[in-house]
Amino acid sequence: MTKAILIEVINNALKSVAEQMTETMVRSSYSTIVKEMRDCSSAIFDKDAQMLAEGANIPIHLNCLGPALNTILTKFFPKESFKPGDIVLTNHPYAGGESLGSHHTKDIIMVAPIFLEESILIGYSVTMLHHRDVGGVWTGDSWTEEIWQEGFLMEPVKLYDAGVRNEALWRVILNNTRVPHDMKGDLLAQISGCNIGSKGLTELVNKYGYEETNQIFDALLMYSEKLTCMEIKKMEDGVYFHEEKVLDDGYKGGPYTLKLKVIKEGENITFDFTGTDPQIKGPINSPLSATISAVYYTLKTIIDPSIPVNDGCHRPITVIAPKGTLVNAQEPIGCFQRMVTAHVVVDLIMGALSTATRDRVIADSCGCLYDFCSAINMETHPNGGEVSHRQYWGEIVPGGLGARPNKDGISVMSCHVTNCPIPPMEAQEIESPVIFLERSIVPDSGGPGKYRGGLAHKRKWKIVGYEAQFFHTSQKSKIPPQGLFGGKPGKSGRWTINEGTENERVLEFALGDVIFLNYGDTVTLITPGGGGYGNPFERNHDLVLEDVRQGYVSIESAKLDYGIVIDPEKMEINEQKTENIRK
């Protein structure tokens, strides 16, 4: 009993350390994408590079820190080569010859070995932070074909050697970004995060003793493995198949197909992506580390959420992803938009496991959504920004999530492996030449079902700068988010330039290359809504009525999709007409 209590105490202490690492980065970073959108992550590893705890941050980041750390230790810096005060950093997706490094060039990973009494290696403090600019073709993002078009590349290299900073490397990094001020501040924030992790783990080991904590670490990993195996065992044994499309609107030769075979046998589960289309000349290819992250995340959402998250959870899981496919990109192909594919992987797994564990999966969600734009206005925003005074804004845009087995889908949320907060419009207007005109919920956008899909969101902004460069990404514009078990699809989304004017232009594709815009132009995005779950005619009458009263569902949709007739004046259900329709 005493050991069980100590395992729980140390587990929570480790999680607290990881959370403190993240909070340190968020509170001390310079760029909006970190200080407002929390696009950073952290984890603590033991001396054998097994993950012990991670902050509850960006899911697609978290599970890639382990493969990246393993690449560093096996291909570049054996653990025996480390000294106290060392810090290694890398942003290379293909470091070591595989795609088991960083997910894309802007995600810089930083690793600090942790020593006890200056000589005993006890673990690693690891952070990842999305940096605003690492060079590349354009400010923000663009459609790339080669990894070199996505910015400068760093295979694992020591930024600090025994506590001494490599000044030549420091200058190289700051001279290869358009925003050296932000880059410097965010790198220092990352270093501080690593230092917090090192301090926290050292204090923990000092408090409980080196031998005792190592035993507890092993017991904690075994505990998570055992609980994960128990959860997997609850699923029905079998082989399950599913496929999903990416670039469904035909952009750049799409749609392309992702295929999955799930083999569930006892306490083990295998995810086999054999049959998935080859990688393409574009940036949507997913490095293997990102695909593994998406798999781990999705399974975690299906099993008991109270299981401590560490490498023990991953032991019963096998991922097969053929090299050179959309789910295991190989150098030199581009990969910065790997999130497009990673989001599809989540829906792919949910669809495949819908037979094995019907009461745990959710319907399709909105997918990967974001936009970034930059412009110059020396009168209103003369300070900060790039060396050229170009200011940058944008966000990981929230949409509608798929309905759940016992609840509606979440509305207006950045979904699944993204998990970024909505940045305040005021913060973006302060720092950039933009005015936000609208942010609203879109009625009738959630897929009808016994449980309704999450509602989409409309977002509109106006450029008040010059020489604007706009880049957009969304999904499911032709094939909307699908429902489950009789649930209907959510609504598709669209992008519009200068909506409601004589110059209105609806963009042909949900994802595209850089578009050059002018002062006064507006950009409007309507995101997809989530798919529904279950037969809409089984939805509770009162829930439909409340949706109508809240403006989430129209009176017309209530009748057509749910079979509920509502008096528009009294806002009451006509029970007789409803019963006749639902029969």
Set down the secondary structure blueprint:
Blueprint: H1 2-28, H2 32-35, E1 40-46, E2 51-54, H3 59-62, H4 65-75, E3 87-90, E4 107-116, E5 120-130, E6 157-161, E7 164-165, H5 167-174, H6 180-208, H7 210-234, E8 238-246, E9 256-265, E10 268-272, H8 288-302, E11 317-320, H9 338-353, E12 370-376, E13 391-396, H10 425-431, E14 434-442, E15 456-463, E16 466-473, E17 494-497, E18 505-506, E19 515-517, E20 522-526, H11 541-550, H12 555-562, E21 566-567, E22 572-573, H13 575-582
Parallel strand pairs: 10-11
Antiparallel strand pairs: 1-2, 1-5, 3-4, 3-6, 4-5, 6-7, 8-9, 9-10, 12-13, 12-16, 14-15, 15-20, 16-19, 17-18, 17-20, 21-22
Helix pairs in contact: 1-6, 1-7, 6-7, 8-9
Largest sheet: 7 strands, antiparallel
- Uncertain spans: none
Mean pLDDT score, rounded?
94
User: Given the C-alpha coordinates, what overall shape results?
Assistant: globular
- Structural class, judged by helices and strands? alpha+beta
How far apart the termini lie comes to: 58 Å
Whole-number radius of gyration?
A: 24 Å
Strand percentage: 15-25%
Number of strands: 22
Lateral arrangement of strands in the main beta sheet: 2-1-5-4-3-6-7
Fraction of helical residues: 25-40%
Question: Helix tally?
Answer: 13
